[in-house]
Structure formats: C-alpha cells, structure tokens
Design brief:
It is built from 6 helices and no strands. It has 148 residues and is mainly alpha-helical. α4 packs antiparallel against α5, α4 packs across α6 and α5 crosses α6. The radius of gyration is 19 Å and the shape is elongated.
C-alpha cells in the first residue's frame, strides 16, 4: 500500500486498484522466487549439519577451524570442504554483475530494490542477473555431480 501511495499518488483514483494489484502481484512473485532460490541453497548446504531450526544459517554450522571441533568422520569432513570449494569456484567464475547481484540478493539477504540501489541499476536488471547466475550455478554444480 505504501508503494502505491509513494509512486502513484498523482494518478487518477480509478487506476489505483489495478496498480495496487500489480504491485502486490510483483511482491508475491519476488517473495516466491527468493524462497525458491534459498531453498535450493539451504537444501544443498543442509548436508553440513545443524538442527531443525529454520531460522539458522547453514554456513553457521561449518567450523572455522575443523581441527578444533570434532566433526567425526574424516570422509564427511573432506566431502564438505570439497563441495564448499566447488561452490566458491563456480561463484567466482560468474560475470561480475551476476556475481554481485547473486551475492547481494541471496547471501546478504537484500531485497530487489536494495540490490538495485547498491548496484546502480534497475530492479529488472537485478532480477535478470540473479536468474542467469542461479541457472549457471545450478548447471555447473549438476555437471560436477552435485544434485540440488
């Protein structure tokens, strides 16, 4: 409702219902896109351990120094480090704008408007960069045998 008032207050009141529905529809799409991408990454990273708490960040469960904390199986420890290395390498291979949009949106938890402001581009460009980045990352990880 605030976006409608902020951006379209000067429009005739007859257009407001249509504008409100479009704004609401876009917000809902943004929310579900964000949830879909997050669920892919949290599903991938859920193998690293942690509890059943949905509010927790999967990366919080990875120790900074594995020798200090007992992780149990050396094989599991090796697999975790290999998967993280692969993810880091694939993110580093992304074009700069895609990498920036991806990291700001999904790792820094910024919304589309905040990311667009930081990147100095439109919200549509942010969505395009994020979509392309997730498709490239998904294909690259699947090609290396990591199922999402």
């Amino acid at each position: 409702m605030l976006r409608l008032v902020d951006k379209y207050a000067e429009r005739p009141s007859a257009e407001w219902p249509m504008l409100f529905h479009r704004i609401l529809q876009n917000l809902i799409r943004d929310h579900f896109r964000k949830q879909k991408v997050r669920s892919v990454w949290t599903t991938l990273l859920s193998a690293f351990g942690g509890g059943d708490d949905d509010d927790s960040d999967p990366l919080d469960f990875l120790p900074s120094d594995p020798t200090k904390e007992g992780l149990g199986e050396p094989v599991a420890q090796l697999q975790r480090s290999q998967v993280l290395n692969i993810i880091e390498q694939e993110v580093a291979k992304l074009p700069a704008r895609q990498r920036e949009a991806f990291l700001l949106r999904y790792w820094e938890d910024m919304d589309t408007a905040e990311t667009a402001l930081v990147m100095g581009c439109s919200e549509g460009s942010v969505k395009t960069h994020c979509s392309r980045a997730t498709h490239v990352l998904r294909a690259a990880l699947q090609a290396k045998g990591i199922e999402l």
